[in-house]
Write a structure and sequence with these properties.
The chain is of the alpha/beta class and 246 residues long. Helix content is 41%, strand content 13%. A 6-stranded parallel β-sheet has the order 2-1-3-4-5-6, sandwiched between helices. The longest helix has 17 residues. It is globular.
Length: 246
């Protein structure tokens, strides 16, 4: 990534704190005119190098409007994707030991890729798969082709891929992704449950994940404005979730 573009991206991402402040002032965060949820379990998965802490405002809002939000149980989203999805699945099973019914998966950035693979494992147990700022388009395309090529020609995604691969080699040196053909890879190839609703929300201003990379087929795509990190605090995203979840 050119130096000017790198600093532009950093400057754009610094706006996330302002988006959080705007969310705190917005009536949507108080649940004004939002349909009540059905108590469904909603698991929220962080993005690359993130953990559950930064997603607390989203989980708090989901609880306020009538759902049962859950963290992912990950201490950090880095390393072997198969290990991470397995950890989330075990966490969900513990949650479901006292809560029955369908669940919703919401993933931010790389968390959306984990959510997509996991949703295919869980089948019709998943009512909604919601990806926020996730590079799901190229990931799905290359999963179907056997992961035989670089992820994308876009330098931003290649930089993310290199960072992710470096973390994987450090945290999970025995991981042989993508040649391993693990459950994560198979999950990205499998069809979703027939009754799973798919939604991808992305920002036209995203300087981390280019907007075309978030387009899904077989689901609904919604464009908003704002930073990549700030999507999880973006009032427009919350309004879309309020429309889509019931």
């Amino acid at each position: 990534m050119p130096e000017a573009s790198r600093w532009q991206s950093i400057a754009r991402e610094s706006l996330a704190i302002g988006e959080l402040a705007a969310l705190m002032r917005d009536p949507i965060y108080r649940g004004v005119n939002v349909a009540r949820g059905d108590g469904r379990l909603v698991v929220v998965i962080p993005g690359l190098f993130g953990n559950d802490l930064y997603l607390w405002p989203l989980r708090r809002w989901l609880s306020r409007i009538g759902y049962h939000p859950s963290a992912s149980g990950l201490w950090i989203n880095a390393g072997c994707a198969d290990r991470l999805t397995s950890e989330i699945e075990k966490w969900i099973d513990r949650q479901r030991s006292y809560r029955e019914g369908q669940i919703t998966l919401i993933g931010h950035s790389r968390g959306g890729m984990l959510a997509r693979s996991l949703a295919s494992r869980l089948g019709d147990r998943v009512s909604h798969l919601i990806m926020i700022g996730s590079p799901i388009g190229p990931a799905m395309a290359f999963a179907q082709s056997g992961w035989t090529s670089a992820l994308t020609e876009d330098g931003r995604l290649n930089a993310l891929s290199r960072a992710s691969n470096t973390a994987r080699r450090v945290l999970d040196p025995d991981c042989r992704f993508p040649q391993c053909g693990c459950d994560f890879v198979q999950g990205m190839r499998r069809e979703l449950g027939a009754h799973t609703t798919v939604l991808s929300i992305y920002s036209r201003d995203d300087t981390v994940v280019p907007p075309p990379a978030s387009i899904v087929t077989g689901g609904r795509n919604v464009e908003v404005t704002g930073s990549h990190s700030g999507l999880v605090y973006n009032p427009a995203v919350y309004r879309e979730l309020a429309r889509s979840l019931p």
